[in-house]
Amino acid sequence: MTRSRLLVVLAFGAVYLIWGSTYLAIRYAIETLPPFLMAASRFLTAGLILFVWATASGESIRASLSQWPRAFVIGALLLLCGNGGVTWAEKYIASGLAALLIASEPLWVVMFNWIITRKRPNTKVILGVLIGLAGVALLIGDGLRQADASSMSLIGAAVVVLSSLAWAGGSVYSNRRPIKASTSMASGMQMLAGGSLLLLLAFSAGDFERLNLASASWRSWVALIYLTLFGSLVAFTAYSWLLRNVTTARAATYAYVNPVVAVLLGWLLAGEPLTSRLLIAAAIIVGSVALITTYGTEQTHSCT
Hints:
14 helices, mainly alpha, 0% strand, disordered C terminus
């Protein structure tokens, strides 16, 4: 039990902190690299590493063949629509604002589960979600006032909200229809599937024509390496493991912490103001995470 709790803590730590930093890393990466091609490269590389690792560890490739349809569904929702949408949108909106808008995901998770099971969620879980969204609203208030009010920024914000909806749907599907393989193999398959779909989108969107390796900055390359190693290999694998071992609502609480991490990084690295409104909102968000984590006690099944 102690080892299990330690694994949960480490997995949440990776998802909370690393994914909170990836919003800024994505912004740096797409400064000089096409967004969909960058995202495809990130997930195809990480997915291939995990897939080869799982195979070298003795996992049967033949046994995983029947699981590829699920991998493509999950990859399409989480990576193509979810991450791909956020990556494209960050060309037009601030990374911190993107993180704030993604925080609506736990609400969609609770609603999806409510629709599927027709069982009303724990009252305290609902309260935690609503409190968390209230804290996020405080942050969004400042973000929207400071954002460029151009039509593309509004479209970008709408795309991020839709990405949040897609990510929630993928999380619920992955929780209820998990890939029957180890976490490494399942994560690798999801990233290979999602990366392949992103590669097709990059081709159709003209990203290959826009790619200019000679003009790509060192900051974009470093950001891409960071996103591949930490954002994909470490954090995405940790999130996939959490979906198998805790409730979806608990796993989705990262969406409340990531905005705080993203805004703090903006303050540290980009000189953005750290206001009292932000500190109050951060306290509210952390409180909501505590509610959902403490009272969202129903367990999911595990196929590892």
